[in-house]
Amino acid sequence: MSHVKAGGTSKNVHDSPGQRLGVKRFGGQKVSKGEVIVRQVGMTKLSGKGTYLSRNFTIHAAKDGIVTFKKRVKKSFTGKSLPRTEVTVE
């Protein structure tokens, strides 16, 4: 027989590290080709000219230049207009 009393179970004790999402290079900053500009989940920001979107929705610089952010209205599949920010490198 065991000589240790029952300790019980613990729930909600697991914690995962943060994903370090967000804007990495802000408007007016210089970027080089391939550099990460925005890390995001889903398309909260759109990739414009001079940028490209990777598989996990990260926006990278496609060329050397200066980052700019512009407000834009994008229509969804249902026809609803959604305000989005477009990231470009000029």
Topology:
Blueprint: E1 22-23, E2 30-31, E3 36-39, E4 45-47, E5 51-53, E6 59-61, E7 65-75, E8 81-89
Could you explain the architecture of this structure?
This protein is mainly beta and 90 residues long. It has a single domain (22-89), classed as OB fold (Dihydrolipoamide Acetyltransferase, E2P), CATH 2.40.50.100. Helices cover 0% and strands 41% of the residues. The chain has strands at residues 22-23, 30-31, 36-39, 45-47, 51-53, 59-61, 65-75, 81-89. The strands form 2 sheets. Strands 1-3-6-5 form a 4-stranded antiparallel β-sheet, with no helix packed on it. Strands 2-7-8-4 form a 4-stranded mixed β-sheet, with no helix packed on it. The mean pLDDT is 93.
Instruction: Name the average pLDDT.
Output: 93
In order across it, which strands form the biggest sheet?
1-3-6-5
Taken as a percent bin, the fraction of beta residues is: 35-45%
Total individual domains: 1
Helicity level: under 10%
**CATH architectural grouping:** Beta Barrel
Unreliable residue runs: none
What's the helix count? 0
| CATH topology annotation | OB fold (Dihydrolipoamide Acetyltransferase, E2P)
Distance separating the two termini: 74 Å
Shape: elongated
Largest sheet: 4 strands, antiparallel
Q: What pattern of helices and strands is seen along the backbone?
A: EEEEEEEE
Radius of gyration: 21 Å
What's the count of strands?
8
Structural class: mainly beta
| The top level CATH class name | Mainly Beta
CATH superfamily: RNA polymerase II/Efflux pump adaptor protein, barrel-sandwich hybrid domain
